[in-house]
Amino acid sequence: MRTKDRSVLLRRALDDVLLQTFTDWRLVVVNDGGAPGPVDELIARRADAFAGRATVLHHRRSVGMEAATNRGLRALDSEFVVVHDDDDQWHPTFLQRTVAHLEDPRTTDDGVMVRTVIVYEEVEGDSVIERGREILEPDLRSITLVDLMKANRGVPISFLYRRAVHGVLGDYDESLPVVGDWEFHLRFVQTFTIGFLDGRPLAIWNQRPGQTGPLRNSVFDPSHAHHTYDLQVRERHFQQWVDENGIGLPLYLTKAVEREAVSLHHRMDRSEELARELLDLVRHQNERIAVLENVVADNSFFGYLKRKWRRLVRR
Hints:
The protein is of the alpha/beta class. The protein is 50% helix and 17% strand. The protein has two domains: 2-245, Spore Coat Polysaccharide Biosynthesis Protein SpsA, Chain A (Alpha-Beta Complex), CATH 3.90.550.10; 252-315. The protein has helices at 7-18, 36-45, 47-50, 65-74, 94-103, 145-150, 166-169, 180-191, 225-245, 248-314, and strands spanning 2-3, 27-32, 54-59, 80-82, 89-90, 111-114, 116-124, 127-135, 159-162, 194-197, 203-207. Strands 4-9-6-10 form a four-stranded mixed sheet, covered by helices on one side. It has a four-stranded mixed sheet with strand order 5-11-7-8.
């Protein structure tokens, strides 16, 4: 569990772990450069509930998210691993359901993700107020490399996996200040499979779009770090592919895609022109209909007066 100077959120996260119906777990809290006192106090208040299952690592200076994760991983030798950030939550059965999936003798998965809900919240003093919620990736039914290449389909709070995979994949990439979880997921699915538990959301990804400072989510960083390092990861893998296969195919595809995009824009522009012309025709036709309706109305009125006049004359 990574944390730094967010006592109100860490308190909730610690209680969240203690609410799990599966109790055979060990927790490492990595305080990455934050004040040690509040963290130690929160752990001490729950000493009886933790019953020796919690350990705290204090970093005098922040080493970054992925380095903090790696140090937490090295502090234990558990069979399974999950990264629980201090601002996220689980359904009480998260560990029970995910561990059961990986322990099922019929499974071939080495990791499992769960249906996740995004909760929008705001911290006011010592209170956390929910402002709204929505399902993350509601159309997601499986975890595939194709989908992960587009964007990250899971977040750390939703992903439990076998520790043994690190022997093959290595650690989290400490050169990435953000998107390190996505980069790890990409490496993971190239060698192993990730199952998916659909249905009731078992993970809660809490977001605070309007918060600043320590309470802010990294995804809302105004420096757009997620976009920058997303491109860096893609460039790294692309360079590796080119080194092994040459530049010919991507060089051709880049131009082919550009031509198709230009052609598509031309077709869209022409469609917009036709739509405008059609609207002009409809508008003109409506004006003609309005004129005809007025003429008909006038004729009907004069016809009525003529009939009245004839009746009067006959009398």
